[in-house]
């Protein structure tokens, strides 16, 4: 147990170090690299590359390199993105975004494969239920990993708040903040001055060092999977070719329920993209300054983690419909309030209320939508979760793609429209499930158990 647990902790803290850097950088892209929308364009390209990567790269790399070296090499792709930010331009950020996107899917797939093999191996030796051990390992992983959102954003705020150029933002400049924002570069048109290059380089140096430490930790302390276990897992990975995976993903769309879940899955990407790409820029950076972005996103990450844990526990008592209703009401209220609110530095607490409520809603979208996919498509999990990755990533691509082209109020109306459509189509899915009553009892039982390992692999 000690050896396996050591490997689980090595992966967990490796991911913590890596995503401390990436999470902090993603939150800052729209504000830090706002010229001509470079930051959000790089994120849009990143998620487009992630879609392509998830279709064919994971099984190929894991088969050729094994889990340990797939994780290590994929982590280097994230470091490349940090390095690209040192001299941010279209010629450095876009290529490094593509590299990160291509490395993202193999990284998560190799992590899932490694934890699954480690859990199964220990369960066989100890004579325990493999599913229980695997769930415990994923629980340890996410307990450590989820805090990365807090540390990455805390580092950015602490470093960027050292800026000596504190500029008062005039009332006239504040008119460019909020839902009816000016489409010009708000970080330059308002008094929110861009941090000095020395501070930016310090921040990027810390993030790059964090990524390098993650790679060294994995290379030095993570055990390679034993050959017999690796061959067993590789055998499973040999089967799907690029075309078989590609075709299975789109064959899944013959299922009416899958088509009806597309709006809900895309909304998950759209709402996360709005918070990290638009709220941070046209509300927080514009009215308070870039140094507050980290603190605001810490609030989101903390509430999101706590609510994910809470909703995972209480869903067996409340059912998923009540939780979806709670998220819908909360998100709708936030969207309407953001349309009406004019951000002002004197209303500091309000800047933190919105990400907290957004974190509560997002916890429902993540946990319950993943769970719903696992329950509805039990016989075609791979194709179903490939569709989940595809449509959620497409939501990110769209959200970051139109970020600099549309005013915030138009994006909020788009969010509201997709949310309403999502709930209508989700209701149709629940209606179809209720009609097939014999399966409903089984599905409810499985929902209460929760497909944790499937959700973790996402």
Choose one word for the global shape: globular
Q: Indicate the low-confidence ranges by residue numbers.
A: 186-191, 439-456
Give the CA-CA distance, first to last residue: 26 Å
Task: Please count the helical segments.
Answer: 18
| Total DSSP E strands | 0
Radius of gyration: 22 Å
Strand content: under 5%
What's the main sheet like?
none
- Chain-averaged pLDDT: 83
Element order: H for helix, E for strand = HHHHHHHHHHHHHHHHHH
What topology emerges from the helices and strands here?
Elements: H1 2-32, H2 38-84, H3 90-126, H4 130-145, H5 148-160, H6 171-174, H7 186-189, H8 197-221, H9 227-238, H10 242-251, H11 256-287, H12 293-318, H13 320-340, H14 348-376, H15 381-401, H16 408-435, H17 437-449, H18 452-457
Helix pairs in contact: 1-2, 1-3, 1-4, 1-5, 1-8, 1-11, 2-3, 2-8, 2-9, 2-15, 3-4, 5-8, 5-12, 10-15, 11-14, 11-15, 11-16, 12-13, 12-14, 13-14, 13-16, 14-17
């Amino acid at each position: 147990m000690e050896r396996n647990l050591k490997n689980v902790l090595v992966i967990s803290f490796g991911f913590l170090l890596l995503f401390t850097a990436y999470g902090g950088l993603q939150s800052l892209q729209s504000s830090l690299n706002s010229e001509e929308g470079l930051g959000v364009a790089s994120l849009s390209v990143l998620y487009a590359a992630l879609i392509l990567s998830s279709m064919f790269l994971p099984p190929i790399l894991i088969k050729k390199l094994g889990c340990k070296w797939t994780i290590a090499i994929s982590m280097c792709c994230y470091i490349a993105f940090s390095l690209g930010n040192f001299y941010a331009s279209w010629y450095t950020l876009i290529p490094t975004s593509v590299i990160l996107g291509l490395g993202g899917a193999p990284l998560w797939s190799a992590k899932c494969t490694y934890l699954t093999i480690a859990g199964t191996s220990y369960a066989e030796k100890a004579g325990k239920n493999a599913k229980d051990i695997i769930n415990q390992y994923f629980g340890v992983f996410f307990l450590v990993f989820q805090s990365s959102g807090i540390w990455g954003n805390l580092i950015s705020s602490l470093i960027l708040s050292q800026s000596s150029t504190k500029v008062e933002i005039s009332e006239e400049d504040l008119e460019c903040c909020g839902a009816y924002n000016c489409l010009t570069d708000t970080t330059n048109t308002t008094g929110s001055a861009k941090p000095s290059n020395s501070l930016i380089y310090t921040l990027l140096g810390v993030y790059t060092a964090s990524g390098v430490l993650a790679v060294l930790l994995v290379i030095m302390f993570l055990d390679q999977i034993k050959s017999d276990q690796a061959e067993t897992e590789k055998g499973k990975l040999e089967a799907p070719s690029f075309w078989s995976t590609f075709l299975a993903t789109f064959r899944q769309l013959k299922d009416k329920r899958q088509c009806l879940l597309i709006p809900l899955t895309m909304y998950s990407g759209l709402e996360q993209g709005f918070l990290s790409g638009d709220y941070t820029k046209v509300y927080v950076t514009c009215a308070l300054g870039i140094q507050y972005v980290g603190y605001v996103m810490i609030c989101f990450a903390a509430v999101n983690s706590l609510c994910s844990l809470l909703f995972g526990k209480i869903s067996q008592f409340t059912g998923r419909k009540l939780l979806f209703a709670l998220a819908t009401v909360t998100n709708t209220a936030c969207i309407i309030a953001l349309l009406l609110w004019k951000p002002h530095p004197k209303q500091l607490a309000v800047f933190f209320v919105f990400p907290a409520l957004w974190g509560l809603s997002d916890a429902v979208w993540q946990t319950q939508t993943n769970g719903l996919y696992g329950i509805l498509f039990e016989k075609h999990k791979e194709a179903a979760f490939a569709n989940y990755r595809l449509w959620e990533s497409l939501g990110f691509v769209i959200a970051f793609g139109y970020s600099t082209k549309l005013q915030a109020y138009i994006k909020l109306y788009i969010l509201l429209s997709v949310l309403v459509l999502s709930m209508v189509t989700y209701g149709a899915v629940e209606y179809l499930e209720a009609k097939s009553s014999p399966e409903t009892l089984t599905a409810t039982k499985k929902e209460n158990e929760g497909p944790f390992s499937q959700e973790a692999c996402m």
